Amino acid sequence: MQAKLSVAALSVAAAFALSACGQKEAPAPVAAPAAPETKPEIVVKLGHVAPMTGPQAHLGKDNESGALLAVEELNAQGLEIGGAKVKFQLVSEDDQADPKQGTIVAQKLIDAKVNGVVGHLNSGTTIPASKLYFDAGLPQVSPSATNPKYTQQGFATAFRVMANDIQQGKVLGEFAAKQGVKTVAIIDDRTAYGQGLADEFRKAAEAAGLKVVANEYTNDKATDFKAILTKIKSTKAELVFYGGMDAQGGPLVKQMKDLGIKAKFLGGDGVCTPEFMKLGGPAADGEYCSLPGVPLEQLAKGPEFKSKFEAKFGYQIQLYAPNAYDAVMVIADSMKRAGSVEPAAYLPEIAKTKMEGVSGNIEFDQFGDLTSGAITLYQYQGGALNYVETLGGAPVAPAAEAPAAPTAPAAPVEEKK
Amino acid sequence: MKNWLSPKSMTGIALIAIALIVLPHVVGMGGQAWVRILNFAILYVFLALGLNIVVGFAGLLDLGYIAFYAVGAYTWALLASPHFGLHFPVWAILPIGALMACVFGVLLGSPTLKLRGDYLAIVTLGFGEIIRIFLNNLNSPVNITNGPQGITLIDPVKVGDFSFAGTSQIFGMTMTGPQKYYYLLVALALLVIIINVRLQHSRIGRAWQAIREDEIAAKAVGINTRNIKLLAFAMGASFGGIAGGIFSAMQGFVSPESFSLIESIMVLAMVVLGGMGHIPGVILGAVLLTFLPEVLRYAVTPVQMALFGKILVDPESLRMLVFGLALVLVMRFKPAGLWPSPERSRELSEKPVEVVK
Amino acid sequence: MDIFLQQIINGLVQGSIYALVALGYTMVYGIMGLINFAHGEVVMIGALISITVTSTLAAAGMPLGLAGLFGLVTAMLTCMALGWSLERIAYRPLRGSPRLTPLITAIGMSIVLQNLAMIFWGRNYMTFPPLLPKVNFEFAGTHFTLVQVVIVLLSAALMAGLVFLVYRTKLGMAMRATAQNPAVASLMGVNINRVIASAFVIGSALAAVAGVMVGSYYEIAHYQMGFMLGLKAFTAAVLGGIGNLAGAMAGGILLGIIEALGAGYIGDFTGGFLGSHYQDIFAFVVLIVVLMFKPSGLFGEKTGDRA
C-alpha cells in the first residue's frame, strides 16, 4: 500500500514538475540587450487564439498568419508609445474550437499578462472566453466570431472587426430576394455559426417576401447530403441557402449537381473560401457567397496586403486573415492614441477607433460591433471569385483613387433567371 | 486501510490534508490556468468515480457516460441563468441535477438489462449521442436548450452574497476564482469518495461485484440483478450530474459541443488506465489523463528543440499522438491499470490459459 | 413519391459501404470477441494512400484509370499490412486479458493512426481524383451516377466472394471453427494465430476498398473520415447480429436505407418537430428498438449465456 502510494505521489509530482519546467521554458520575452540609447524598449505581448488542430485548422493558421504579418509590420515601423520603443510579440494558442479549451487557453493568456487578445476564431469559444477577459480587464478583438451574443453580453472589453450574423443574414436575405426567386430551402450545419446565420437569413428572406419551403439540417462533420438534397429537390425550391463551412459546402454543391438540382446556391462567409472552390470543383461555378467588408481589390490597401501575405506565407488568404491583421492594428492604434500599452489605459480608446483597415472601415458602436456592417456578395466563375455587389452598411469611400489591379471587374454581373 | 485511527494513518491523512490545502497556491504560482486545469481534473475525478461504479464495480460497459454530465450541466444552466430567468441557489440545483441524472441513468439502463457486454457498449454509446443531439436541437418549436448556441451568462456558485467567481479576500488572503472553486470541488470530491468507499464495501457493492463476476450465479444466489444494475446506472449517473452542475457554474457557458463521444471515451480511459474498480487508481487515472495533454502542450516544443534542434512536428499534433500511444503502452504492460486493486493484479498476473501457442 | 425511390438508391449506396466496413468488424469480433475500434482508421488510411499514389502516378503521366487501379492495389496491400501489424503488435499480446483491455488499446491505436495521418497528410480536406468518368443515369425520376452503380455492384461481388471464402474453403472452415470454440479448433490442428491474422488481413483489404469507394463517391478524404464511418459500420454490424456475416451485410444496407429514409421523411411524419437534424441518431434509435426485441441482433444466434 505504501509503495503504491509513493508511486502515485511520484507520478503526480512528476506531472507537476514537468508542468513547472514547461512553464519556465515557455518562450521568455525577447528582451533586447540594454541599448546605449536613451529610449527603453518594452515587449508587448498580444495573444492570438484559434483552432490550430481539427477540421478548421486551416482557418486558424490563416488568422495567425494575418496577425503575424501585422505584428511584423508594426515592429518594422519601430513604434514609440508612452516614451518607450515598443516591440510586439504574438503569443499564439490553440483552442481546438472547443469551449472548454477556450477558457483554459484564455486563462493562460491572462496569466501570461498579455496586453490584448486577438481571438477567438469561433463564436462557440469566443463567448465563454470573453467572460474571463472581461473579468481581467483585457481587451479582446475577435476577427471572425459572428454570433450576435458575443457583444450582447455587455462586456466593455468585447469587440469584433467583422460584421455579425444579424448583419450578414439580413443582407443575404435581401440579396436572395433580388435574385428573382420565390422559394428558398435552408440548410444549416447545427453549429452556433451555421444555425445563427441561417436563422437570420430566414427572417430576412421571409421579410422580403420569399417562401421558405424546406428547413434541413446536417452537421459539421458530414460528407453525405443526398438524403436532405433529395427532399429539397422534391420541394422544387429555387434557391438553396447553406449556413455552414466550406468543408461541407463543397461536397454539398457537388451532390446537388449529381442529383440534378437546378436551384441556385447561396452561402455566407464560411463558403467564401478557396477551399470551397477546391472541394466543390466545377460544381462551385455559378454559386454565390458573401464576405463581410468591402473587397480587397477596392481598397487601396487591399491588393498590397494580398501580395504581401502571399509573398510571405506562400499560400492564398483563406478567409479571415485580413480581419486578424486589422484586429492587431486596432489594438496598436488604440495604444498609440492612449499613449500607453496598459490595458486599462487603452481600452477606452478602442471604442473611439476610426480607421481604414484592410477589411474596410473600422468604427465601433456601443456594443463593440462594427458600425459599417457592409457585406459584399461574390459569385464563383471559372475558378475565381467575382465581385457582384456590396450591400448594407455605410458607403465606403475608397481610400485611394483607382484600384491597383488592372483587371478590375467591370459592371457587376447579376444573373436573373 | 485497516485501522483508520492508527498513528501511521493519521500522519498520512494529515500530510495529504496539508498537501490538498496548499496545492492550489503552489500550482497557482505557475499561473491561474494550472489551477483551472486542476479543477477540471477534479471534475474528471467525479466522472471517473461515477463511471467506476458502472464499469468497475458492476462490470457494465458504458460508452455514453458523458450524457449524465450533460444533463447535470444543462440542469444548472436552465435553473440559474437569464435563459428562463430562474436563479435557484446552489443547494437546490445540485440535488435536482443529481436527481435528473439518476432519472436518465435509469432510463438509459432499462433497455439494456438483457444485453450482452458489447451490445451494451454500443447501445450506451448510442444513448450518449442521442442526448447530445437532442440538446443540440431542442431549440424549436419550444426553445428549451437554445440549441448549438448554448446558454450563456450562467450564474456561478453563490453562497449568500459570496460568489465563487472573481477574486476575493478571505482571512486576509487573496483567493482567485479558480482557487475558491478548487476548495469547493475538493470538499465535494471527498464526500463523493467516502460515499463510493462505503458503497464498495456494502451489500450493494458486493452485489455489483457478484454481477460483474458471474451474472447467472448472482441471480442464483437471489440477487435481484435488474434492480441492482439500475441502481448502478443511477448512482453512477448522479455523480456525473453533480460534476456537470459545477462545470456549468465554473464556465459560465454551456453548449452541446462539450459533451461528445470523445469525452465519454476519455472518462472510460481514465477508469481503465487508472485501475478499474479500485478507487485510488481511478482517481489517479483521472488526474493523470487530465494533466498529461496539458503537460505535453508545454513540453513538446522544448523537448524537440533539445533533441533535434528544431520543431519537427508541431505540438498540437504530437499531443494527441502521445496520448494514444500512452493508452496502448499502459494496456500492453499494465493491463490491470496503473494502480489496480490487489485482487485484480493477482488475478491478472496468473498466466492466462493460453489457447494459442 | 418519386423521391422514395431516389432515397432508396441513396441509402443503398451508402449502405453498401457500411456493409463492407461492417464485415471487417464482424469477422474480428466473431473470432476474438474484440471491437476493433481502429478499423475505421484503416478505411481512412486506405483512402488517403490511394489519393497519394494515384495523384503521383497521374502527375507522372499515367492515365487516370490505370493510376487509380495502382492506387487501389497499393492501398489494399498497405492496409493488409497495417491490419496484420495491428493484430501482431497491439492485440496478440493481450489475448486472454479481460475484455476492456484490448478495447482501450483499440481506442488508443485509433487515436494514434488518426494523428499519424494528420501529421503525414495534413489537416486540410483532400480532393479525391475522379477515377471513373462522370456518367449520369436517369430512371423513373431518379438520378444516379456510374460511381454509385460501381459501388453497389463491387460491394456485392466482394461480399459474395467473402461468403464463398468462409463457407467453401478450408481457411473459411478454420475461421468458423475458431469462432465457435478456439480451444477445440486448435486441438483439431487449426493454427489459431494464422486464422486470426487472416481475419484481420481480409477485413483490412475490404476496408481499403471501402476507403477508395468513399473517396470516389464524395470526392474528398480527410484524416478524420474514418471515425464516424467506423462507428456507424459497427452499429450496423450489431444491428445485424455481430459475429454473423449475413448480419453485417444486412445490417449495413439496412442502416444506409434507414438513414436516407429517416432524413427524408421523419420531418413530414412528425410535423417538423423531428427532422433531418436528428438523422445521426436514427440508426441508434432503430438499433435500440431492435435490440429490445431481439437482444442478439436481427440475425444473431441465440448463444446461451456461457457460464
From TrEMBL, chain A:
Pfam families: Peripla_BP_6. PROSITE patterns: PROKAR_LIPOPROTEIN. Keywords: Amino-acid transport, Signal, Transport. Residues 44-383 form the Leucine-binding protein domain. It comes from the Bacteria. Residues 1-20 form the signal peptide. Belongs to the leucine-binding protein family. PANTHER family: AMINO ACID BINDING PROTEIN (PTHR47151:SF2), LEU/ILE/VAL-BINDING ABC TRANSPORTER SUBUNIT (PTHR47151). This is Branched-chain amino acid ABC transporter substrate-binding protein. It comes from Azonexus hydrophilus.
Automatic annotation (TrEMBL), chain B:
The chain crosses the membrane at residues 38-58, 65-84, 90-110, 117-135, 181-199, 230-253, 265-288. It is found in: Cell membrane. Keywords: ATP-binding, Cell membrane, Membrane, Nucleotide-binding, Transmembrane, Transmembrane helix. The keyword Transmembrane applies. InterPro entries: ABC_transp_permease (IPR001851), LivM-like (IPR043428). Its main location: membrane. It is a multi-pass membrane protein. Pfam families: BPD_transp_2. One of its GO terms (molecular function) is ATP binding. PANTHER family: HIGH-AFFINITY BRANCHED-CHAIN AMINO ACID TRANSPORT PROTEIN BRAE, HIGH-AFFINITY BRANCHED-CHAIN AMINO ACID TRANSPORT SYSTEM PERMEASE. This is ABC transporter ATP-binding protein. It comes from Azonexus hydrophilus.
